[in-house]
């Protein structure tokens, strides 16, 4: 167990530590979200499944310090669960998100050039 992290939690770390990340093929922007939870891993996963089904809670994440408009909105696509006997958490959960409109996300946050690159790549894939 990492004693520094463990003591930083006042020796009472949460069971679950979740972080929000864009999918590897999505625009790499810092996202809101993530969570800590003192529930079982099974309960946490069931809550994620419910959020996806009902499109609420952890289903949405937003680009940090942005307007939360369409260009800033990401939705939960999948997650990975990591466990280790050396961790102070029962599990680390990585929540993977994709933008609802990648073109607008690229255009707003990275500029017209990258938005066009996205469209060009999309055209190659679909042809």
- Mean pLDDT figure: 93
Query: How much helical structure, as a percent, in the residues?
Result: 25-40%
Structure summary, number of beta strands: 5
Total domain count: 1
Distance between the termini: 51 Å
Give the DSSP E fraction (strand runs of 2 or more residues).
25-35%
Structural class: alpha+beta
SSE layout and pairing:
Blueprint: H1 3-8, E1 16-22, E2 35-37, H2 41-54, E3 60-62, E4 73-82, E5 91-99, H3 102-110, H4 112-126
Parallel strand pairs: 1-5
Antiparallel strand pairs: 1-2, 3-4, 4-5
Describe this structure in words.
By secondary structure, the chain is of the alpha+beta class. It has one domain (3-100). It contains four helices and five strands, in the order H-E-E-H-E-E-E-H-H. The protein has a five-stranded mixed beta sheet, covered by helices on one side. Helix 3 (102-110) packs antiparallel against helix 4 (112-126). The radius of gyration is 17 Å and the shape is elongated. The chain starts with a helix and ends with a helix. The relative contact order is 0.20.
